[in-house]
UniProtKB/TrEMBL annotation:
It is a multi-pass membrane protein. InterPro entries: AA/rel_permease1, CAT_C. Belongs to the amino acid-polyamine-organocation (APC) superfamily. Cationic amino acid transporter (CAT) (TC 2.A.3.3) family. It is found in: Endomembrane system. Residues 477-508 form the Cationic amino acid transporter C-terminal domain. One of its GO terms (molecular function) is amino acid transmembrane transporter activity. It holds the Pfam family AA_permease_C. The chain crosses the membrane at residues 37-54, 66-87, 99-122, 134-151, 227-252, 264-286, 321-341, 348-367, 411-434, 446-466, 486-508. It comes from Nyctereutes procyonoides (Raccoon dog). This is (raccoon dog) hypothetical protein. GO terms for cellular component: endomembrane system; plasma membrane. Keywords: Amino-acid transport, Glycoprotein, Membrane, Transmembrane, Transmembrane helix, Transport.
Amino acid sequence: MLCQALRRFGKKMVRKHPLELPVAETAPARSLSTLDLVVLGVGNTLGVSVYILAGEVARDQSGPSLMICILVAGLTSVLAGLCYGEISARIPHSGSAYLYSYVTVGELWAFISGWFLIITTFAHMGLSLVTKTLTLVKVLVLGFVIISGFLKGDLHNWKLTEDDYIKAGLNDTSSMGLLGSGGFVPFGFQGILRGSVTCVFAFTGFNIIVTRVELAQNPKCSIPKSIMISLFICFLVHFGVSAALTLMVPYYQLQPGSTLPEAFLHIGWVPAYHFVSFGFFCSLFTKVFGNMFPIRQQVYMMAKDGLLFPVLARIQTGTYMPILATMIIFIVATIMTFFLGFTDLLELRSVGALLVFTLLAFIVLILRNEAQVQEENEGNEADVQEENRPAAESLTLQTLFFPGNPTPTALSGWVVSVCSSLLALLLTLLCLVLARWPVLLSGDPVWITVVVLLLLLITGITGVIWRQPQSSSPIHFKVPGLPLLPLLSIFLNIYLMMQMTAGTWALLARSLKPTSLRAKTIDLELSRASTYLV
């Protein structure tokens, strides 16, 4: 009896959601070009974070090496963008990591990724002239900041010493931050890692592009292209703003909670302060009036699928909006803003984004080696179950490294799924050990042996995945260098997450309490209207 209950519960955790083709009468018009999607991605990513994040990270975590933090965070986001690009090309349906998880790896991971997206998604809707105008204003203002920083900045601020710190303390009556060791990297390698985690938040807005797949003119081509172009533009802007800020103001003189316009007050350029403040308020305007739509849509989708309380999916007559879900989101967001500090909110959103990025890389490994593309399986659940049964083929050591079929089979897909799960576990253990890198540098033979063994296991399992046949489906974009790039993405994401403070993990654990509640009540739910793939 208990075994049957556990088996039934396990099936519910891994069941998949079928993709539904849009009905011709209700399908939205495909009107968005690649340029429209790029504007949407850039406008959503370059939000208020670019005006506040740089000063917060430079003061306490990285100093002038903030540019390196932006580079690491940008690399992490680019790898995630590559994964988003291939998944959106294979599954051309409007959604997010929640939908991609639901149709590939099952209900449990869909709930987790959806909950993380609710925490981390603060995006704005808008494809109107107003949005394009505000995006142009923000880019122009930030371009002015970059040029001004190089004109009015001082390279000496990248090589500050203790004498400069003492002199600044005599002339500055406001509170100053820590000096650290001075120079370009005042807080060491650890400071760069901590700053990189926080800077991931600066790139989390690009995922709004995948929510517009069904509006794109050529989604299989334009979605991956617009993601990469948006990330490249945002990286250049963030990198330039970071350099300009640290050139204009010594990092220890940046005030807690100060915004980018205040840097111009430090150099006595008041007109520029007002001009940059205008760009800041443009960003604030687009966020305040637009950030409710994607979160509300995410909650509605999860409630409709039964992963959140069904009452959150109720549509108000006349407005056609989930009013109750909107009100609850607004209340929760207000409470979080009131009780949590700015740094806590940044880290909470960053760790949620990193977890979603990790799941995306895992999904790419699964999709590339699946026996049959998910969207081709619609409406034939029995055939899918029969085909995906690995018992039909024999598993030997030879088939691991020399599979007999040139195309993916049920067995090869099962092997990749198991190996990918093992790699995720081994990479987590490796990152836990590498988090003690000062001990490794001391030459402790025990830790060095552990690292070597983990690297050997990771290399061997990676070789198994590499030898498995991959899908030859003709799509416009594929992640290059599979399985190395997805595994590099998983490693970077997990290693950066290891730099989070215990307080951030406690906040994240507290936010995931509804998971246990849903697990306790899932067996009591009535059958749903939609069908699922077991």
